[in-house]
């Protein structure tokens, strides 16, 4: 019987007028996809909440150190790092332990942008980063119906659950 592990990840970022990754720009990255003409987020990296939550889910499934331990936000060497590179590194650790991704289910919570317009590109991007079939990645978009800071368009959050097998 296969060794099965499940992990859960979460991330949240505040919207800003620019990101630290591209100073002066209005870049928002979700699932490795640039969302054109949308305000970016406050973050030490490129601030991709989708890839950050997926990274923590993958690491958590094997009780490995979380994204903050591997890439602290107080080091110059990690400033502006691409979330895709963080996810690749984390998945490399998982593969080194003899595990592979069975599936990931991702929920992006935001009033804007509408996730449905980017869902397929995000799935393809994540599948490419992890070198898995796109059918292993699911993405859903939800809103907060105007409630709390995310509902008032001050931020974006993401929840992810993943299943790994050896």
Plain-language structure description:
This protein is an alpha+beta fold and 166 residues long. The chain has one domain: 2-C-methyl-D-erythritol 2,4-cyclodiphosphate synthase (60s Ribosomal Protein L30, Chain: A). Helix content is 28%, strand content 27%. The protein has five helices and six strands; from the N terminus they run βββαααβαβαβ. The protein has helices spanning 49-61, 67-70, 83-96, 119-130, 148-151, and strands at 4-14, 28-30, 33-35, 100-109, 137-142, 155-165. The strands form two sheets. Strands 1-6-4-5 form a four-stranded mixed β-sheet. Strands 2-3 form a two-stranded antiparallel sheet. The longest helix is centred in the middle third of the chain and has 14 residues, at 83-96. The chain is globular, with a radius of gyration of 15 Å. Mean pLDDT is 89; it is low at 21-25.
């Amino acid at each position: 019987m296969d060794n099965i592990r499940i992990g859960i990840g979460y991330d949240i970022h505040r919207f800003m007028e620019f990101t630290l990754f591209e100073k002066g720009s209005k870049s928002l990255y979700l699932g490795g996809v640039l969302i054109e003409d949308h305000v970016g987020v406050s973050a030490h990296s490129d601030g991709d909440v989708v890839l950050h939550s997926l990274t923590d889910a993958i690491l958590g499934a094997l009780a490995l150190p979380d994204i903050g331990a591997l890439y602290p936000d107080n080091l110059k060497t990690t400033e502006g790092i691409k979330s895709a590179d963080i996810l690749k590194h984390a998945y490399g650790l998982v593969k080194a332990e003899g595990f592979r991704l069975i599936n990931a289910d991702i929920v992006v919570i935001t009033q804007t942008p509408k996730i449905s317009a980017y869902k397929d590109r995000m799935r393809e991007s994540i599948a490419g980063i992890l070198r898995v079939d796109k059918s292993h990645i699911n993405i859903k978009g939800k809103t907060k119906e105007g409630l709390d800071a995310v509902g008032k368009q001050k931020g974006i959050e993401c929840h992810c659950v993943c299943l790994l097998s050896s």
